[in-house]
Specification:
Shape: elongated
CATH topology of the largest domain: Rossmann fold
Strand content: 15-25%
Oligomer: single chain
Number of helices: 8
Structural class: alpha/beta
CATH architecture of the largest domain: 3-Layer(aba) Sandwich
Strand order of the largest sheet: 3-2-1-6-7-8-14
Radius of gyration: 20 Å
């Protein structure tokens, strides 16, 4: 059975790729495409805007709603989504969660930079609908999330830990959500206080590292899709774990895998680890 999909942030870099790969896969029917008001493609066919051909759904600044006078939307029968995928900016995350709760739509959210209040609202919403929240939807990155804490625990406290993340010049939040997840998982496995133990970069004449801290470094340059590395350094050797995303499609394929898995699940806050069976 083909699930009905709502794409939030459909006019952005990730959103356009979601639309394209959905059209390519044929595993979902797109029933809504939402983007912020003022986007230059508002009103255009979402498929054409993504370079995937017409799909009969316009890019809209509002969420789909049942028409008051007739059961039609954009000239076709109204159809509520089974699941939404949201890669929009963090400012819009609350509206997406509210819509999904009100309309009983499962949610896959890959939006980073959420505030503590936004996280709390998502946790509360998970009591009513199934939600997958992940700072990184890549399958490979989620395997790294799973093993990084185990490696840190095995190596022990004599190994200094530094995390370096690299992204394109347009990324707003720093450090990346994925880098913070890596650090958090290390802290859980080694008894460190997260996020108090994180040191963002270093500068000055007295910048020697302190025992137990985790160095965090953010690079923003060009069109880097996403590179994360975790270095464990001791006197005499360095162990490095890393992940490189070669294109945004790796995140999209992971998100689509998550959406397919989530449809029909009971309310709750799930992770990509649940999807992959490694949680």
């Amino acid at each position: 059975m083909i699930s009905k999909l709502l794409v939030v942030g459909a006019g952005g870099r990730m959103g356009r790729r979601i639309v394209s790969l959905v059209v390519e896969s044929g595993e979902f029917e797109i029933v809504g495409a939402v983007e912020a008001a003022g986007h230059p493609d508002i009103g255009k066919d979402a498929g054409l805007a993504a370079g995937a051909g017409a799909i009969g759904i316009k890019l809209d600044s509002g969420f789909p709603a049942r028409p008051a006078s007739a059961d039609l939307q954009h000239g076709r029968p109204f159809s509520r989504a089974d699941v939404a995928i949201d890669f929009s900016l963090h400012e819009a995350a609350g509206a997406t969660v509210e819509y999904c709760v009100e309309n009983n739509v499962a949610l896959v959210s890959g939006t980073t930079g959420l505030s503590e209040d936004q996280r709390a609202k998502m946790l509360a919403a998970a009591e009513k609908i199934p939600i997958i929240y992940g700072t990184n939807m890549s399958v490979g990155m989620n395997v790294l999330f799973n093993v990084v804490g185990k490696v840190a625990a095995m190596l022990g406290e004599d190994y200094d830990i530094e995390i370096v993340e690299q992204h394109h010049r347009f990324k707003k939040d720093a450090p990346s959500g994925s880098a913070l997840t890596l650090a958090e998982n290390v802290c859980k496995s080694t008894g460190r206080d997260f996020p108090a133990c994180i040191v963002d970069g270093r500068s000055g004449k007295e910048a020697l590292r302190k025992k137990g801290e985790i160095g965090m470094h953010a690079v923003r340059a060009g069109d880097i899709t996403g590179v994360h590395s975790v270095m464990f350094g001791a006197l005499g050797e360095t162990v490095t774990l890393g992940h490189t995303a070669n294109s945004r499609d790796t995140f999209v394929r992971g998100a689509l895998r998550a959406a397919k898995w989530l449809v029909g699940k009971k309310p709750g806050l799930y992770s990509m680890g649940d999807v992959l069976g490694i949680a």
